[in-house]
Design goal:
Elements lengths: L14 H10 L2 H13 L6 E5 L14 E6 L2 H11 L3 E5 L4 H4 L5 E7 L7 H14 E14 L5 H8 L7 E2 H9 L5 E8 L4 E8 L1
Parallel strand pairs: 1-2, 1-4, 2-3, 4-5, 5-6
Antiparallel strand pairs: 5-8, 7-8
């Protein structure tokens, strides 16, 4: 995993600081938009959220079967304390052995994950998720994206991201297309603060 975790960025490992920064940067409204417009969970859906962080997105979902994975023990501890039996929360990366632990999923979520991974890591993870999902299931991803004539502030903020593998839309889609037959891409321009996101719905 390629990311910067030193200096000021290191404090983002604290769940309360992470959520504060997310709030300042519109994270709550962004999560609501992702749930309502793209993830579209229904009661009873079996959902796996890779890189779930403190799993705050679960607060916006109906009664689903939620499974969250994150390498940060602090984030997972926070999620367990806040959501308890509403979900299953695992410390670590989602790997091949984890597929057998769960029934196939209806929806996979990768929010802010792919730009932390190099091409090999991203390809391997997408391949695993393809195996973990039911036939006809969906994978929803969201990452910062580089585009032509991008807002200067948005580009600067993206360069400050901890992830070191921010890509062009065609590069993200190319990674996903190796494992999924249908890719629907949406470029979102966030206004306050300016930021550019790519959402992919893969099936």
């Amino acid at each position: 995993m390629t990311e910067i975790t030193t200096g000021l960025r290191s404090i983002l490992s604290l769940p309360m600081i992470y959520e504060l920064v997310q709030s300042i940067f519109g994270g709550r409204s962004e999560r609501r938009m992702m749930v309502n417009r793209f993830i579209r969970p229904k009661p009873g859906d079996h959902i796996v959220d890779i890189g779930c962080g403190p799993a705050e997105i679960l607060a916006l979902m109906p009664d689903v079967q939620y499974v969250g994975y994150d390498p940060s023990a602090r984030y997972i501890e926070h999620a367990r304390k806040k959501f308890g039996s509403r979900g299953q929360f695992f410390v670590g990366r989602f790997g091949k052995d984890d597929i057998a632990k769960h029934e196939p999923f209806d929806i996979g979520i990768l929010i802010g994950v792919l730009h932390h991974l190099d091409s090999i890591e991203a390809t391997n993870l997408l391949a695993l998720l393809r195996l973990a999902l039911k036939p006809g299931a969906r994978l929803v991803t969201e990452d910062p994206v580089l585009i032509e004539d991008q807002n200067a502030i948005a580009r600067t903020l993206i360069k400050w991201d901890r992830g070191r593998n921010v890509r062009a839309a065609s590069e993200y889609c190319g990674l996903a297309a190796a494992h999924f037959g249908t890719i629907r891409e949406t470029v979102m321009h966030m206004k306050i603060p300016p930021y550019t996101l790519l959402i992919m719905e893969c099936s």
